[in-house]
Amino acid sequence: MSKVERVGVSLDKELLGQFDALIDKQGYTNRSEAIRDLIRERLSEEQLAKPTAKAVAGIFLVYDHHSTALTDKLMKLQHNHLLHIIASTHIHLDHHNCLEIIILKGKVKEIEDLANQMASLKGVKLSKTNMINVN
């Protein structure tokens, strides 16, 4: 474990009060862990801005499974990126709509490219990609 270094931060009372309310709502027991998490999150965002950074991601797609050949196109894209895809889950939401969650790892640019290819397919209604830096 690395050494812990104490630092001081000056905040106005209103901002500190808002921060305390937020971290209390989120279940933090102290400010230090909340601040550490905020720093980690910001550092991760900075890494994700680099196209070659390593990341893991979930691509969430809601689509009409009756759309012509859409499931075949999605499957083909997944097979073409087999080394990056860790797992996928298919959920039937109702008679027309499915949710597909594709979990993958790779470089930020590769993940973004695949997510965009999937999102742009005819029949995909909603698409969201959540990415986390792994460095």
Description:
The protein is α+β, with helices and mostly antiparallel strands and 135 residues long. It has helices spanning 13-26, 31-48, 70-80, 108-119, and strands spanning 54-64, 85-92, 97-107, 124-133. It contains 4 helices and 4 strands; from the N terminus they run H-H-E-H-E-E-H-E. The protein has a 4-stranded antiparallel sheet with strand order 2-3-1-4. The radius of gyration is 20 Å and the shape is elongated. The protein starts with 12 loop residues before the first helix and ends with a strand.
Sheet with most strands: strand arrangement: 2-3-1-4
Give the C-alpha Rg: 20 Å
Major beta sheet, specifics?
A: 4 strands, antiparallel
Task: Based on Cα principal axes, name the global outline.
Answer: elongated
The sequence of SSEs as H and E is: HHEHEEHE
Report helical residue fraction.
40-55%
Tell me the fraction of residues in β-strands, as a range: 25-35%
Number of helices: 4
Low-confidence stretches: none
- How far apart lie the N and C ends? 17 Å
Helix/strand structural class: alpha+beta
* Average pLDDT level: 93
Number of strands: 4
